[in-house]
């Protein structure tokens, strides 16, 4: 396991009911399939005292609806029709969560979303760089393997880049892996997932789950299911959407982890971030365990030495795919 894991608190499975701290969270894309349930979960989090919602349209209605939930937080909603609506939504934000973009449809990969979502993320990141450059940025919009480099390049061009504060939210892969293994073990356990957030770049580390025994066939099948769990949802929804509810849960969980860290707790999470773990291979971004504090990433933890040969091979296969996505995102901004 990771050397420091036992000394830290892993991300909570339920959201905080602690005494409220003064925290403003903005959701960009709040009226969408992920944005609405995500906004509801954030409204239920006692650590969020101000919830600011933005989307192209319908956001005031979502804000009014979510605002009736009886927790002590203020909800405001802005749309593109409002003068300086995006700017107002972002002013004073400590966390900005970006689920904006189009969802996948049957037969589409996350990378197929690039042409539309890349421009959306670029423009929203630009607004964040101008209005709240010190906020922590949580990017959900796919393809995360490219949209995180896009946001980073935008912040670099604006002269306000801080690698510790830009995160690709890959928590859904861990949530899925934990759920699938929970079916087998009869209890929910933590399953590390590293790499990226698309297909073969998603690498569950089943070797790190204490007490878990898998045959090669079971390991292969579960690995594939974690990697392509999103396709399972897209197909089940029969063209009417993608993984919105589970993604909202995972995004709210990650936001809660950052809020806990901001209040002084020691928290471990998993995220797609700027990292030098594979610098020799020319790879700049990778999803792994990170120790969080009030400034964002406090420490990036390396892969455990005890991962299996099978998992090491998966990492090596993922690196070329990650590099292509990374280059594609950075080139888009350049």
Topology overview:
Blueprint: E1 9-10, E2 24-28, H1 35-43, E3 50-55, H2 59-67, E4 74-79, H3 85-90, E5 95-98, H4 114-131, E6 136-139, H5 144-158, E7 166-168, H6 171-185, E8 193-195, E9 202-204, H7 216-227, H8 229-236, H9 245-262, E10 267-274, E11 285-293, E12 296-300, H10 309-333
Parallel strand pairs: 1-10, 2-3, 2-5, 3-4, 5-6, 6-7
Antiparallel strand pairs: 8-9, 10-11, 11-12
Helix pairs in contact: 1-9, 4-5, 5-10, 6-7
Please, could you describe this protein's structure?
- Homodimer.
- With 334 residues, this protein is of the alpha/beta class.
- Helices cover 40% and strands 17% of the residues.
- The protein contains ten helices and twelve strands.
- Helix 4 links the parallel strand 5 and strand 6.
- The longest helix has 25 residues.
- It starts with 8 loop residues before the first strand and ends with a helix.
- The N terminus is likely disordered.
Strand order of the largest sheet: 4-3-2-5-6-7
Number of H- or I-type helical stretches:
10
Task: Quickly count the domains.
Answer: 2
Q: Helix-strand pattern, N to C?
A: EEHEHEHEHEHEHEEHHHEEEH
* CATH architecture call of the largest domain: Alpha-Beta Complex
Subunit structure: Homodimer.
Catalytic activity: (S)-malate + NAD(+) = oxaloacetate + NADH + H(+)
Binding site for NAD(+): 29-35, 55, 117, 140-142, 247
Protein name: malate dehydrogenase
Task: Give a quick precis of the structure.
The protein has 334 residues and is α/β, with parallel strands linked by helices. 40% of the residues lie in helices and 17% in strands. The strands form three sheets. Strands 4-3-2-5-6-7 form a six-stranded parallel sheet, sandwiched between helices.
């Amino acid at each position: 396991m990771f050397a420091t894991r036992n000394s830290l608190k892993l991300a909570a499975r339920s959201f905080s009911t602690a005494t409220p701290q003064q925290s403003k969270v903005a959701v960009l894309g709040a009226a969408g399939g992920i944005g609405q349930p995500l906004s509801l979960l954030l409204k239920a989090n006692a650590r969020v005292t101000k919830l600011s919602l933005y989307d192209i349209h319908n956001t005031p209605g979502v804000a009014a609806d979510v605002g009736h939930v009886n927790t002590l937080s203020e909800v405001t909603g802005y749309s593109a029709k409002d003068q300086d609506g995006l700017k107002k939504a972002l002013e004073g934000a400590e966390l900005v969560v970006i689920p904006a973009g189009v969802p996948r449809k049957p037969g589409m990969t996350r990378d197929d979303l690039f042409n539309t979502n890349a421009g959306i993320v670029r423009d929203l990141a630009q607004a964040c760089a101008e209005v709240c450059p010190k906020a922590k940025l949580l990017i959900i919009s796919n393809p995360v393997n490219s949209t995180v480099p896009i946001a980073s390049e935008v912040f670099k061009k604006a002269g306000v880049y801080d690698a510790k504060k830009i995160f690709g939210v890959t928590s859904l892969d861990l949530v899925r892996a934990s759920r699938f293994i929970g079916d087998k073990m009869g209890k929910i356990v933590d399953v590390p997932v590293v790499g990226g957030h698309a297909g073969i770049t998603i690498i569950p580390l089943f070797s790190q789950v204490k007490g878990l025994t898998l045959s090669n066939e079971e390991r292969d099948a579960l690995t594939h299911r974690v990697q392509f769990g999103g396709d399972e949802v897209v197909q089940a929804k029969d063209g009417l959407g993608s993984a919105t509810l589970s993604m909202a849960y995972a995004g709210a969980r990650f936001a809660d982890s950052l809020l806990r860290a901001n209040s002084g707790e020691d928290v471990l999470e998993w995220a797609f971030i700027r990292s030098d773990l594979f610098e020799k291979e020319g790879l700049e971004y990778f999803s792994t365990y990170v120790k969080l504090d009030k400034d964002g990433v406090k420490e990036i933890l390396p892969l455990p030495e005890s991962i299996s040969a099978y998992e090491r091979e998966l990492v090596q296969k993922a690196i070329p795919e990650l590099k292509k996505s990374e280059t594609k995102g950075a080139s888009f901004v350049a």
